[in-house]
What we know:
Layout: H1 7-25, E1 38-41, H2 68-78, E2 84-87, H3 99-108, E3 112-117, H4 124-133, E4 137-141, H5 147-153, H6 159-175, E5 181-188, H7 196-204, E6 210-215, E7 252-254, E8 259-261, E9 274-275, H8 281-285, H9 288-298, H10 303-306, H11 328-347, H12 356-373
Parallel strand pairs: 1-2, 1-7, 2-3, 3-4, 4-5, 5-6
Antiparallel strand pairs: 7-8, 8-9
Amino acid sequence: MNAQTTPRENFQKLINRFVDQLAFARNPSEEAPAFPQHIHIEPTNACNLRCIHCVQDTMSRKRGFMDMEIFRRIIDEIGPLGCAITLDVQGEPLLHPRALDMVSYAKAAGCHVSLLTNATLLDAAKSARLIELGLDRVVFSFDAVDPELYERIRLRSKFKPTLANILEFLRQNVEAGSPTFVCASIIHQEATRGHLEDYKRYFTELPVNTIFVSELLNMSGHSRVSGEIDLSGKSGVEKDARPICRVPWENITVNWDGRVCSCPLDFEVSCPVGDVHSQSLNEIWTSGAFRDFRRAHLDRDYARFEKGQTLCSACNCLWDPEYDLRAYDGFVKKAIVRQASHYATALAEKKDDSGMEAKRAALMARIEELKAAD
Length: 374
């Protein structure tokens, strides 16, 4: 790890940015606040699944894989800043043939590294290597603990082998002293309604750090379940009363081809603000294109950048109070607690192993149950 960016120092930088952003949010402008502490990086926009809440079926953007030279260029810039990265966006990161090299390079540069995966490709060898590399956080997108329901949501996936991959990662993580923070993630949608408590109960008994219930994203109307979200009642809201999305003031998303957008939900990269082939991320963050994007949000004038397409104007995230820049005071309190939990393993002076034996026993029992079911 870069000696200048220890986990404790990175966490302090994160808190400093929250404080700076809080002051900025009280009188926002189109100018750039402090450089983001978190960067979304898309190793690939290809995916081996076709989940009902996703846009893989409708996305027309060319599929591809990020070149390692581009990845290294990004990390070389943000590593000294102590930034956190998440390997995610629109595809399955482990489809990238050098996904583990990406984790290795970013960790060596001092970045806090998260991986969001559907776990279908996570075999025992990859799990061992990710844990060895010091992966800070993994999010398992696994939408049900009922086999039939899971396979109805996660099309092209099989329940048992995927769950076995997750349990094997948990087993190896426990044996290594639980260095990786583990999140089990489920989408709250019509299909999972009535299943959430079973899901929470199942993973609460296991050595999982947190269970995240994510509200359904309508992907601006482009997923097959977008109709579950009705925004018709928002059309009459006066312009000045409409929310201001905080994302343009805190997020950079680098797509596999090097194009940069403000929001990871811009799955077609319909509103790019730069390209890392010709610009640094800092140059993009302070660029005229990014400032114009922010000004359009302040003015609630999305047509200025949508140009006949739909992105922010039809996004349900806009109406989530947690994403309203004007409500940043409330958001930042929750965000600090959430981020502290992500950094907890690296920051802890001493591990709290209370209850771990029971979770380890439950894990081994689940592994045996799965084997017996074959």
